[in-house]
UniProtKB/TrEMBL annotation:
Protein name, as recorded: NADPH dehydrogenase
GO molecular function: NAD(P)H dehydrogenase (quinone) activity
InterPro entries: Flavodoxin_fold (IPR003680), Flavoprotein-like_sf (IPR029039), NAD(P)H_dehydrogenase_qn (IPR051545)
Keywords, sorted A to Z: Oxidoreductase
Domain Flavodoxin-like fold: 1-192
Entry's family note: Belongs to the NAD(P)H dehydrogenase (quinone) family.
Species name: Alloscardovia macacae
Top-level division of the source organism's lineage: Bacteria
KW Oxidoreductase (keyword) present: yes
Record GO cellular component, one term: cytosol
Signal peptide: none
Length: 201
């Protein structure tokens, strides 16, 4: 199973980095004797360390429809194409994902690669791939559920599902970070590590 982790957080000392390490440890713990999908090949794409440019540019000479041929994003399209599972790890800021991850989607999940149109409806071109979304935020879970848009859900349903044809198998969300206890944070880390150790493509 080929796994690509798309990680969007700028600080190695933050909780999101602990989540990344827990997920990596879970995948790395798999062996032929414990998983039907072993061995697992993991690629971690740290968008901040990668220095990814999130700004989408096109003009009269460089047309939007030609983004599928952009040489600066070719390696990312190849990486996604070769992946069975995409793992998204990011915080929710201002009810949305970090700009660097939104820009990655704008520039890489482009028409002709991730989707096309059949009449007025989109058709996903990445069918057969799965996604696991892991988010954190500073909002109480009940409030987020009823009053605040959750970009993890937007990513799951609208972007990956409807547009690209990718099935999200799970969305883990660590709510209300500033009021969380060490015990609750550790329990969340154990949960995502455990799931990484057994998820199948």
């Amino acid at each position: 199973m080929n796994v690509t982790i798309l990680y969007a957080y700028p600080h190695d000392g933050g909780y999101n980095h602990a989540v990344l390490e827990a997920v990596q440890a879970g995948f790395s713990s798999r062996t032929d004797s414990t998983s039907a999908d072993a061995p697992v090949h993991i690629t971690t794409l740290d968008l901040y360390k990668e220095g990814f440019d999130p700004i989408l540019r096109f003009d009269a000479e460089h047309r939007r429809r030609d983004l599928i041929h952009d040489p600066s994003t070719e390696k990312y399209r190849t990486l996604i194409e070769d992946s069975d599972l995409l793992v998204f790890i990011f915080p929710i800021w201002w009810s949305g994902m970090p700009a660097i991850l939104k820009g990655f989607i704008d520039r890489v999940f482009v028409k002709g690669f991730a989707y096309r149109y059949k009449g007025i409806l989109p058709e996903g071109l990445l069918k057969g791939k799965k996604a696991w979304i892991i988010t954190s935020d500073d909002t109480p879970g009940w409030f987020a559920r009823f009053f605040e848009p959750d970009y993890g859900k937007v990513l799951r349903h609208q972007i990956l599902g409807i547009m690209c044809g990718i099935k999200t198998v799970r969305h883990d969300s660590m709510h209300y970070m500033r009021a969380s206890t060490p015990r609750r944070r550790e329990a969340f880390l154990q949960r995502v590590q455990r799931f990484a150790s057994r998820i199948r493509a």
